[in-house]
Amino acid sequence: MDKVADIGRDIGAYIRQQRSHAKISLRQLSKLAGVSNPYLSQIERGVRKPSAEILQQIAKGLRISAEALYVQAGILDLPVGGPVTDAIRADTALSERQKQVLLDVYESFRRENQVASTSEPEPEPESKPEE
């Protein structure tokens, strides 16, 4: 039971931190997320543990990935990565939104390169004899 209470406090503190980084008041986030002000306050103080749906609404209001909140809340495991993704996630100078954008760009480049390396080389165009 104590573990559940710890998770509630952890996610609440994390949401408060993200709201602070975004320079959004509790009332503003409440409106953006469509969650009542008192309920959001209880989440931030660790009194209430939000559902996945509420976390998704809060993530939308903060403009961060819902996955980041799910990981923090213990709903999802931390995604596996490598040195680059670990470094991005560990960088405290970046907001969650900035981290997610960097990770999305990085992964899109990796997928693009993987597709390019596994596809067969295109045949060279035939050249017409010069007249």
What best-fitting shape do the alpha-carbon axes yield?
Answer: elongated
Identify the CATH class of the largest domain: Mainly Alpha
By CATH, the architecture of the largest domain is named Orthogonal Bundle
Count of individual domains: 2
Q: Which class best fits the helix and strand makeup?
A: mainly alpha
Determine the number of helices (DSSP H or I, runs of at least 4 residues).
Answer: 7
Count of β-strands: 0
Describe the structure concisely.
With 131 residues, the chain is mainly alpha-helical. It has seven helices and no strands.
Can you describe this structure?
The chain is mainly α. The chain has two domains: 2-73, 434 Repressor (Amino-terminal Domain), CATH 1.10.260.40; 83-118. The protein contains seven helices and no strands. The chain has helices at residues 2-21, 26-33, 37-44, 52-62, 66-73, 83-90, 96-118. α2 packs across α4 and α4 packs across α5. The chain is elongated. The N and C termini lie far apart (85 Å). Residues 1-5 have low confidence and may be disordered.
Lay out the secondary structure.
Layout: H1 2-21, H2 26-33, H3 37-44, H4 52-62, H5 66-73, H6 83-90, H7 96-118
Helix pairs in contact: 2-4, 4-5
